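Issue: copy button drops trailing tokens. Both records pasted manually instead:
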Amino acid sequence: MRIGVIGPAGKTQDELRRAIELFLGDPEIKQIIYLGTDGAAEAVVDEFSRGQLDENDFLTRGAELACHGAPEDIEQLLGLEAAAQGLSRVRRLPDPPAPPSPGEPVPLGLARVDRTRTILTTAGWSDVTIERCDRVCDYSMDGSDGVEERLATAMSGTLGRKVRAALESSVDDKEWQAALEDARSELRGALVDGAVRFTGHTWLVTARNRS
């Protein structure tokens, strides 16, 4: 399953409309995910929806055309129905969580040396030494290529959970598995020496506490 992703940065309404139209025109794209939280995608979908027939109107019009309609009128009606179904493919990610309060623990919250040092000295530690320690993160286990392990890690993270939440109500299991297989293919295309590997950056910290 292919997924179209539209970022919010710098998008005017016209640019967003063209991007959505482009993805709607590709029948292989089953979901269109808008990454913004500004409601712009909903506005474009509402604009596209104006003039569309609801289910009752569609059935009534279809019955009329079946009896008395010209082929081109029937084709036009079916085109409207296809367009309406296509709009249901447009989704946006759930709203992000509220920003953390100052000092609240967050992922990568100790990535800055000065912040890490301040936390330790405020807590009563002295002689704080912080050294950069880079190591290779190797996801392979027991001879595997690490693809499944990396995918499991990604899907359990914040972004992975948001993507799953945005899609699980609108795709069936077969489509979801196809999307996961696409992710596996991307990971396999970037293997290092036959496995998922990259350099991880950490701090090696030593300090004293006399209390």
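Record 2 (pasted manually too):
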Amino acid sequence: MSKRITLKSAWLVAIIAALGLSIGQTANARLETKTAQRLPESRGEEAVNRLKQAGLYDSLAEAVRATHYRIKAQAGGYQAVNPAQDYVTNFTADGIQVYDSLGRELDGRMSLAGGSVRLEVDDEAAVYPVTVDPLLTQQAKLTAGDAASGDEFGNSVAISGNTAVVGALHNDDAGGDSGSAYVFAPPPPPGDPYADAVGPGTILVLHPNKAVGAPDGHVATVFSLLGIPSLVLDMGAGEEGTGNLKVHYKGLAVELLTTVDFLDADGHKISAGQLHLVDLSAGTHVAEAPYAGAPTPYRFVRLRGVLLLSFGVNAVEADSIVSP
């Protein structure tokens, strides 16, 4: 007896909405299968805050309402209606192609049963992964952290950008069949290891803002004067450094030994490390000042000089920063 892969309407319509196409409209929306991965899961107040920050919904209840589609058959195909999102789309099964990893075509069709559109694929002799074109193959597997039999996780689904809200109609967290909604989204991007701004106390520096951000070839010119503090850079709130400091520099006439002070958010010195600038050739070079105060994070770095000389700072870069 042949097995069948069945994709019910909630996932199917959400995918169609996310791709912005009608089934059979194009064969260029194919996505390749990747190894399944677990995306971060948010619940409760954390989930609500994430939805609000992303500008999606003001509550989990609103997000859940947005997941419900009414499906009906019509001449030549089907219509999906979502009143909460003022969304209507018509789609058909025309042009669906299903094939396995060997390129062999498989039998695929759509049907309407109990208010759900189902995509059925005969995979009895298929070699996985199976691709449905112009739909898509599996990119990641979403699972509930507290999954239990009968929860009906996936009963409703809403997708906006890279955020998915998945309902579990019969989850019992707040009592029998109270239900839950799970919010899945990628983790926030890693922080920036470069300085975000010029800090207070900067003196004897020409164009100090050119030392802010990633290396770009432009420099702030630091005039070293007998150890007087010169360039102060702010690594940024939430991006404080915890490791050694790389200094991207250029424009040396002779070798130069400087000192880097590592400061906390209040401007108090945590530790200091020597920075030896030795490369006199053209172009930008990198030297590193050791940080002895780890794991205490530093918010500011202050470059000092020891001779009546100048040099150019293109950027500063922390080897490591605080975790987001």
